[in-house]
Amino acid sequence: MNAPRRVITGIDANGRSCIQIDGSSGMTIWSTDDSPADNTGSKDAGSNTMSFPTRGTCFIFHDFLPRSSVPMHATDSVDYIVVLSGEVSFITETGEVHLRPGDALVDRGIMHGWRNDGDAPCRIMNALSPAHPVGKGATISGTVNV
């Protein structure tokens, strides 16, 4: 799949609103280290890695390749997910739900996995915000390549 286009706003040297970044990016569109976020400066907060926020936020795209899966895991975050293209199954300890383009999912830090049984890739958009752990399973934290 093509890299997503990323448009990032900011303030120019004259104090006026502007577009600072417009182009393709890695899968992490933007992340912040704290909340409320510090919107000053022009540092590019996107990358090819994803940080699981402890106080800030992270906004990413994720692709599930055809016939692939992600093992059961948990994150100390609440994830707001929208399926953009393709189809994917979200797996919990007691069942699963099949998601299609336009479907929205809120993952509240539970044990879960993913599976794409189809012949086409699936792309999701995910905005992560820190949350208290629910206390079960292997929690992912830190930074991972996307």
Strand content: over 45%
> What's the helix-strand series?
EEEEEEEEEEEEEE
Number of helices: 0
Shape: globular
- The CATH superfamily name is Jelly Rolls
N-to-C CA distance: 14 Å
Main sheet makeup? 5 strands, antiparallel
Notes on the structure:
The chain has 146 residues and is mostly beta strands. Helices cover 0% and strands 54% of the residues. It contains no helices and 14 strands. It has strands spanning 5-11, 17-24, 28-32, 49-51, 57-64, 68-75, 77-85, 88-91, 96-99, 104-107, 112-116, 122-130, 139-140, 143-145. It has a five-stranded antiparallel sheet with strand order 3-5-12-7-10, with no helix packed on it. Strands 9-8-11-6-13 form a five-stranded mixed sheet, with no helix packed on it. Strand 8 and strand 9 (96-99) form a beta hairpin.
Chain-wise SSE layout:
Blueprint: E1 5-11, E2 17-24, E3 28-32, E4 49-51, E5 57-64, E6 68-75, E7 77-85, E8 88-91, E9 96-99, E10 104-107, E11 112-116, E12 122-130, E13 139-140, E14 143-145
